[in-house]
Fold:
Amino acid sequence: MKENKILGEKRRQLILEWLQTESAPLTGGELAARTNVSRQVIVQDISLLKARGEPILATSQGYVYMSDIEKKKNQVERLIACQHDPQKTREELYLIVDYGVTVKDVIIEHPVYGDLTASIMVNNRKEVDEFMDKIEKANASYLSELTDGVHLHTIMANSEQALDEVCLALKKAGFLMNEE
Structure:
């Protein structure tokens, strides 16, 4: 016997509780299965929760609740400018995560829409591989293809030193854009 759908506000409250208590990201498919609704309903629920100010982040691994404690965990951030061909994306991401640095997002400046930001949230090679696999399976384009490979990343680490080291490595590898 098929279980009943969990409706409306009760479903959104459950989604919020699950996101707040889980340590790993939850996919739309997983949330849909738990509540017996479609993935599209979950996408709409997440949009409603975000509109209420809930700090939910959609990552390549699933949805994550970003509490103030998680945001502050002694993490420092830096915005870096990079340029490379799409075929070099995996190499760039590997280089960053191999230094213990998290790639939070990718940002491009679109001539019509302005800044476009996509969450990545990868911090190890396994997560990079999962992210890259999703792009390949979806036959999706990289945002940087709209800007001749020019893009920004917000990177996060436990220290400025780690960010300095990864920036030096990115520069040596030819990924970091030169300031001229």
